[in-house]
Amino acid sequence: MLCVSADITAAQDDAIVNLSDPNVRKQQVERLAGQSQQRKADAWQIAKSQGWIPKELIGDRIFELMAIDGDRVYVYKTCNVNAAISIGANLIRNTLPYNVNGAGLI
């Protein structure tokens, strides 16, 4: 039997952050989410000023502008529109015990 124990750490502005502490993890998630939301808002502002469409359905894929950093444009591409059908999830999503249709979620 092999047992391994390790601290989970992350770099934050040249400082080491101990991610094994749930409160520290929560703070890191909030910080990174805020950065991501701001980068997306900034990118959408640029897109608007340039006449770009920041989110679009092309075929069966959704493309969404997430950030612009210098000469790089970051876009999420969703490719799993038919994934639920291909694995049969559509047959059980409204069935107990799964009930994974998203009802009641905010």
Walkthrough of the structure:
The chain has 106 residues and is of the alpha+beta class. The chain has one domain (18-92). 35% of the residues lie in helices and 26% in strands. The protein is built from three helices and five strands; from the N terminus they run ββαβββαα. Strands 3-4-5 form a three-stranded antiparallel β-sheet. The longest helix has 29 residues, at 22-50. The model is unreliable at 1-6 (pLDDT under 50).
Strands, count: 5
The level of helicity is 25-40%
Please give the domain count: 1
- Order the strands across the largest sheet as they lie in space: 3-4-5
Mean pLDDT comes to 81
Shape: flat
Binned strand content: 25-35%
Number of helices: 3
Give the secondary structure arrangement, pairings included:
Elements: E1 9-12, E2 15-18, H1 22-50, E3 55-58, E4 61-69, E5 72-78, H2 83-86, H3 89-92
Antiparallel strand pairs: 1-2, 3-4, 4-5
In short:
With about 110 residues, the protein is of the alpha+beta class.
Provide tags for this entry.
3 helices, flat, disordered N terminus, two-stranded antiparallel ribbon, three-stranded antiparallel beta sheet, 106 residues, alpha+beta, 5 strands
